Amino acid sequence: MDQQVMQRLKRQLEQELQEIEQRLDESERPQATELSNYDNHPADNASDLTDQLTEMAIDEHRGDDAEEIKEALQAMNDGTYGKCAVCGEDIPIGRLEAMPKALTCVEHAEKKEEHLRPVEEDLLSSTPKSDDFIELEEFGSSDTPQDKI
């Protein structure tokens, strides 16, 4: 990899890391808008809680980004930057310019993303299996006799 490109990517990563850390330092947890819950509507409590959870999720995402950037900067210092951490192949310059914190090639990045899906998706589906549905019907349903005609 060209040294000028490497230096430009390093500066970009350092600047992005600095911005993220500054935002994390300035970030405040939203406080409840009411002093007491005694006369508070449940929807107001829910809005406060949603705001708090959203801010916490954003901060967590920023923290994850900061860790990925630190890993990329460490790879630059170690001399392994630009090589896929899984297969060892060169990562295309276009990918690194688009996403400087990338440590894997596109093929292995997609496999990494697959594991981010919730585990529940493997167990739950919107359409019941036919055998399960028949088994459930044996226990009855809320259908009335006219529904079965």
Q: Care to give the gist of this entry?
A:
This protein is mainly alpha-helical. It contains six helices and no strands.
Overall spatial form = flat
Chain-averaged pLDDT: 80
If you compute it from the alpha carbons, what radius of gyration comes out, rounded to the nearest whole angstrom?
25 Å
**H-E order:** HHHHHH
Question: Could you tell me the number of beta strands?
Answer: 0
Question: Largest beta sheet, briefly?
Answer: none
The termini sit apart by 73 Å
The helix count comes to 6
Class from helix and strand fractions: mainly alpha
Region (Disordered): 19-49, 116-149
Biased composition (Basic and acidic residues): 20-31
Keywords: Metal-binding, Zinc, Zinc-finger
GO molecular function: zinc ion binding
Structure description:
With 149 residues, this protein is an all-alpha fold. Helices cover 59% and strands 0% of the residues. The chain is built from six helices and no strands. It has helices at residues 3-26, 42-78, 93-98, 106-114, 120-123, 130-137. The longest helix is centred in the middle third of the chain and has 37 residues, at 42-78. It is flat, with a radius of gyration of 25 Å. The termini are far apart. The relative contact order is 0.10.
